[in-house]
Write a structure and sequence with these properties.
single chain, 163 residues, alpha+beta, Glutaredoxin, four-stranded mixed sheet, two-stranded antiparallel ribbon, 6 strands, 21% strand, ribonucleoprotein, Ribosomal_mL43/mS25/NADH_DH
């Protein structure tokens, strides 16, 4: 593709592959509501301009819709496969903050598992006294306190989303 048009770098394969936001398989539709004028929607406009092409490339199963000048404040809405909706307020945020927040609440973990984290068994990690660790949003289990062979990651969830 020739390097013509408005900001052709956004259409290069290298730029599209640099996107880091990979959604969980439960995300079906993403809507972006923003205004074309005003300071409060500046981050949302840059998010649409720079990050939406990368998100479309990395998540081909997600339908993405943009709504311009239909709302007083910008927001993102995600529709999940179980009928649940996740609303993300992006008013006054930078496009990098928006990307990090969306990755945190709806992105896959680094290991590729989207529903639960790995928890080692007590017998695998020695005989240290167990500590309570969070395995997923609703599951707790016991694991050793000082384990070098097991790794734990704790996910934070959006405070506005009901438990």
């Amino acid at each position: 593709m020739p390097m013509k048009g408005r900001f052709p770098i956004r259409r290069t394969l290298e730029f599209l592959q640099k996107g880091e936001t990979v959604f969980k398989k439960s995300v079906q539709i993403m809507t972006v509501n923003y205004n074309t004028h005003g300071d409060l929607s500046e981050g949302a406009r840059k998010f649409v301009f720079f990050n939406i092409p990368q998100i479309q490339y990395k998540n081909p199963w997600v339908q993405i819709m943009m709504f311009k000048n239909m709302t007083p404040s910008p927001f993102l809405r995600f529709y999940l496969d179980d009928g649940e909706q996740v609303l993300v307020d992006v008013e006054g945020k930078d496009h990098k903050e928006i990307t990090n927040h969306v990755k945190m609440i709806l992105g896959k973990s680094e290991r590729g598992s989207s529903s639960s984290e790995r928890v080692c068994r007590v017998s695998d990690c020695g005989s240290q006294p167990p500590a309570l660790v969070m395995r997923g949003p609703e599951t707790f289990s016991f694991a050793p306190r000082e384990s070098r062979s097991c790794s734990f990651s704790i996910r934070r969830f959006c405070a506005s989303r009901p438990a």
